[in-house]
Automatic annotation (TrEMBL):
Pfam families: NTP_transf_3. Residues 10-162 form the MobA-like NTP transferase domain. SUPFAM superfamilies: Nucleotide-diphospho-sugar transferases. Keywords: Magnesium, Transferase. GO terms for molecular function: nucleotidyltransferase activity. This is Nucleotidyltransferase family protein.
Amino acid sequence: MNQDPVDGVGILLAAGRSVRMQGRDKRWLPVGKVPMALRVAQAFAAVPFGRRLAVVRPDDTALVQEFARSGFESLINPDPDRGRCSSLACAWSALSEAAPVMVSVADLPELTAGLLQDLWRRFGEMDPEAILIPRYQGQWGHPRCLGRPHVAALMAHGGRESVPVYLAKNPQVIQFWDVKDPAVVRDVDTPDVYDALCRRQPNA
C-alpha cells in the first residue's frame, strides 16, 4: 500500500442552498426513512478516515448534531452563497497539514458504505500523487480522492481554485475507477430527480 488511508480525511460538502428544489431543503428530504445528507454521512462513517469533516451553513444547528452522530466535525461556511469553492476553503483551513482526502457533495444518497470503502481502499493502493475518480459509463462521478500533494496545492490557493479547475490543469494525474453502480453520478438536483429516486427506493 503506497499511502495509509487511515491518515486521510473524509470531507462532505453540505452547505448548498438547494436552489432548484422549489423551496425544499434537499438535505432533509427523506430517502426511505433517513434524510438525504445523513444517509451520505452514514456511508462515509463506514470508511476508516482519520477525520471526517462536514461543511454546513450558519443556521444548521440540527444538522451539526446529526452529523456528529456519524463522527463528523462540522465546519461553518459563513458565506455559502459563494458556492462550493467557499466550502472547500473552510475544509482546507481546518487541516493543519495536507492529507489524502475523499471529497463528496451531500446529495448523492445512493452511495453505499461498501462502494466508498472499495473506493478508499483502491485509492490507498495507488501512487500517493494520484487523483482517483469513479466513473460510470464514461461519466465522471463522486466522491473524488486526492493525494497529499494535490491537497497541499489546493490549500495553498486558499479555496480560490475549485477542484474541477485543478483537475483540468492536471489531467495527467487522474486515474479512473470504472464502476457498475450509477450511485456515483446520481446527484439529486431537482424535484423530478428526487421523485425518481423515491420510486427506485421506496423502502430504502
